[in-house]
Design brief:
Elements: E1 4-11, H1 14-19, E2 23-29, H2 34-41, H3 45-48, E3 55-58, E4 61-63, E5 74-78
Length: 84
């Protein structure tokens, strides 16, 4: 039986509006990386166009798509911001 990790996805800014929620819980295979979570999120057509512009963080650390995810991690989806 394949081991699974529970990951909480936190959406910020426009991604929360597009997702229709501030968070989701995903079950991913042990050994999954941020890229695997993002690929799962791309199945949601409302989010897929925004995801390539986003940055990602696990806890308080900005991470790349190759960052491994552990059971209980919180992955934040951070859209670009603008302002003056």
């Amino acid at each position: 039986m394949e081991s699974m990790n529970t990951i909480t996805i936190r959406f910020w800014g426009i991604t929360a509006r597009l997702a229709g929620a501030e968070q989701r819980v995903l079950q991913l295979s042990a050994g999954a990386r941020v890229a695997d979570a993002v690929e799962h999120l791309r199945l949601d057509a409302t989010l897929s166009g925004e995801l390539p512009r986003c940055a990602y963080a696990v806890g308080d650390d900005m991470v790349g798509l190759d960052h491994p995810l552990a059971d209980g991690d919180e992955l934040s989806v951070l859209p670009p911001v603008s302002g003056g």
